[in-house]
Amino acid sequence: MFIYAMFQQYFPYELRGHAHKYTQKLVTYFYPYIQITFHELTGEKLKRSDAYFAIQNYLADHTTATAKRLKADVVKGSKSLVLTMDDHEQVMEEFQGIKIWWSSNKNTPKRPSFSFYPKTEERRYYTLTFHKRYRDAITKSYIDKVLKDGKAIAVRNRERKLYTNNPSDSWGSSTASWSHIVFKHPASFDTLAIDPARKREIMDDLLAFSKSEEYYARIGKAWKRGYLLYGPPGTGKTTMIAAIANFLSYDIYDLELTAVKDNSDLRKLLIEISSKAVVVIEDIDCSLEITGQRKKKKKAKKKTTKKGESEEEKEGEDGNESSSKVTLSGLLNIIDGIWSASGGERVIIFTTNHVEKLDEALIRKGRMDKHIELSYCDFEGFKVLAKNYLSIETHPLFEVVRGLLEKTKVSPADVAESLMQKAVEEDADICLNRLIRDLESKSAKEGEQSKEA
Ligand SMILES: Nc1ncnc2c1ncn2[C@@H]1O[C@H](COP(=O)(O)OP(=O)(O)OP(=O)(O)O)[C@@H](O)[C@H]1O
């Protein structure tokens, strides 16, 4: 390594193309090895390239040899622990049978530098060394792979955010904007109580979407995918949204349409949404003006129903009209139009308990590409919940539960509530028996109701 340093000083040969692309210096010698250095950049320069940080992530995550010798360190701006290489530490890895050496170093400037952008005392850099006969494989494939993987690891490890929109008022004193908190929801596809085959299908769909940047560009479509989640209350729509965001490592933008004054404020909010985002509009049927059809139905109904109902419906309409003037066409124009021009990896999700009330234009394929019905708890769903809540996969009482679930309509939320331990001494038997009692009483009630009807 000493020899490299000497040659680097006296016989440097820079490949400018690569130097620009990777913020690197590629140096070759009479010696058969090539070295590339990737410098830590600060200030404005950092925006141009984050190659150094991508490599840092890659080395911490990928190099098995490194992993044993890594030390825990806290990376700037993040509270999560990240493993990094020690100064002057060297690790070796193999890529397609090619040996590659990475080393971590630092420079301390001898003289203070005067610059518009403040500089840190020390400058860190990674050096990559390999035999010059593999120059093409390394510069064309390996470095790209490292940078891509390193960036993906950064996305996975970053602190994600849950954004909600602040109400904008109709007098213009407050404008539409987002507030955020750290998003930490434990939901995952593993803990989601739905049919395993459907779960796999949704995960495959999401995965394919997240890897399809080039495909979307080629077919000339905006890189977005729409999901419509519908089903009765407590069947897991919100939980699935959290699981999707966790699965893709995206931020969530929870858009409350009734708090948006008009289409122009909606446009402002949607334009601000970053890439890698799940945009959620929950209970879309409750956001009036969006459901044009529902309004028409209500008006027709008013003439035929008794006085009390008619007044109640009128109240609902007026209330919603005064709170938001967002229209269906406004929402669609922004999603289809502006987003298409702005690129970026976004999943948009609408949820509703009443899919039949939604305007066809809103949920047609191409806008809401995937319609997912979440329904009452079946035996497969119950088994997932039993595993989540009681850590059991079988039990003699499972068969009783299966029989009751076949004749009772109960949401996963209700099943989860019955299964939940209410005291430390409660074991699986107690919780399952409680569930059985609850299911029996629900089934009896449903029987009585159907007799009355
Ligand atoms: N399919 C499911 N898998 C796992 N847990 C579930 C599922 N459905 C419901 N739950 C549990 O029930 C609670 C309520 O579910 P959730 O809020 O996701 O339902 P929802 O369909 O969004 O309801 P609503 O339509 O009322 O908003 C969750 O906190 C979760 O613990």
From TrEMBL:
Origin species: Linum tenue
Family named by the database record: Belongs to the AAA ATPase family. BCS1 subfamily.
Reported cofactor(s): Mg(2+)
Domain of life according to the entry: Eukaryota
InterPro entries xrefs: AAA+_ATPase (IPR003593), AAA_N_dom (IPR025753), At3g28540-like_C (IPR058017), ATPase_AAA_core (IPR003959), ATPase_AAA_CS (IPR003960), Mitochondrial_chaperone_BCS1 (IPR050747), P-loop_NTPase (IPR027417)
Stretches with biased composition (Acidic residues): 310-320
Domain AAA+ ATPase: 223-378
Alphabetic keyword roster: ATP-binding, Hydrolase, Magnesium, Nucleotide-binding
Annotated GO biological process: response to stress
Keyword Magnesium recorded: yes
Location of region: Disordered: 297-324
Catalytic reactions of this protein: ATP + H2O = ADP + phosphate + H(+)
GO molecular function term, any single one: ATP binding
Protein name as annotated: AAA+ ATPase domain-containing protein
Pfam families listed in its UniProt record: AAA, AAA_assoc, AAA_lid_At3g28540
